[in-house]
Design a protein that fits this description.
single chain; 317 residues; alpha/beta; Conserved hypothetical protein from pyrococcus furiosus pfu- 392566-001, ParB domain; 3 domains; five-stranded mixed sheet; two-stranded antiparallel ribbon; 54% helix; elongated
């Protein structure tokens, strides 16, 4: 049965902004963005927040914390229309309302899901929570989904914030969880510094783990090597250039024979003194000794003119 809301004009000073019992957002993401503040300043709150009575003149926030903070910061109003739940509404129901509101937003994050289940399990058992709420998230009602989500809360706050905001990939976050504290933070520091893409996050993490095991060292020690610090140190090279250099260095460390073969091939190609535009490529990972020579032509007429010479050379090889 739907809960009984009442619509009311609420004085912002009567809202308990220090109560975070219904919040599903990491601490670092609680503040409203500039766009939201500007929107509220122009048009007010268009989607009413939901509050729950705490007493005669005090209310807790169920949904809409950032909208309410934005309203306070604009100083254009001291009151706003809200939907209010009675004081006897259970904590489980207020959390369920927040989950519905967050899902309705259309981009609920795994961090919000994890925080929701952490809080709802204080009021419901695993079986009830799984059967009631996992299907709404597109998941089968099995407890292992709850456990997988809750594992993410083992990350430090700033890593949780990055995961929530999409700066850290979920799969990489789970990889980081398997590392010790210093290795985890050392890896993430570089990812943040270079704003690595999802693909590079995965490759960088896998490479660092493999090299640390191979050399019986820590990832932190690996990232403190002079060659790495030199690449990452402030200099004229921009972020994409630093990223390319770092990924290349780690690839060479991970596959030293491939790197040696690559260097030998570059030396060989340079010795040919190929004309501008002409390129020489090797087979993938040097699996074969075959090479491919590419010669660009301005148009078909030029190719037709030169082709007899090329054909004669090919016939005589």
């Amino acid at each position: 049965m739907p809960l009984a809301f009442r619509s009311s004009l609420i004085n912002l000073n009567h809202i308990n902004f220090q109560d975070f019992s219904n919040s599903l957002t990491p601490e670092e993401a609680l503040e409203p963005g500039t766009e939201l503040i500007e929107s509220v300043a122009r048009a007010g709150i268009l989607h009413p927040p939901v509050l729950r009575e705490q007493g005669r003149t005090c209310l807790e926030i169920v949904t809409g914390r950032r909208r309410l903070i934005a309203a306070k910061e604009t100083h254009n109003t001291i009151s706003t229309i809200c939907l209010v739940l009675p004081a006897d509404t259970s904590p489980a129901e207020t959390l369920a309302i927040n989950l519905e509101d967050t899902i309705l937003r259309g981009n609920i994050t795994v961090v919000e899901q994890a925080i929701f289940f952490q809080k709802i399990l204080e009021h419901l058992d695993e079986t009830e929570a799984a059967h009631r709420f996992l299907p709404a998230l597109g998941l089968e009602p099995h407890s292992h989904h709850l456990h997988n989500l809750l594992q993410l809360l083992g990350l430090e706050d700033h890593l949780l914030g990055a995961l929530h905001e999409g700066r850290l990939h979920e799969g990489v976050a789970r990889e980081l969880l398997s590392l010790n504290f210093t290795d985890r933070l050392s890896l993430f520091e570089v990812m943040e510094m270079l704003n690595l893409s999802v693909g590079n996050q995965k490759k960088f993490t896998a490479t660092c783990r493999e090299l640390a095991i191979r050399h019986n060292t820590s990832i932190m020690a690996l990232l403190c090597q002079p060659e790495v610090r030199e690449i990452l140190s402030p200099q004229e090279t921009n972020i994409p250039q630093k990223t390319a250099r770092l990924m290349q260095w780690f690839t060479e460390q991970r596959f030293p024979r491939l790197a040696e073969a690559e260097q030998e091939f570059r030396t060989f190609a340079a010795g040919l003194k190929l004309p501008n535009g002409v390129t020489l490529d090797h087979s993938q990972s040097f699996e074969q000794d075959q090479v491919r020579l590419s010669i660009p032509f301005h148009n078909r007429k030029e190719l037709s003119r030169i082709w007899p010479l090329i054909g004669e050379a090919l016939a005589s090889k």
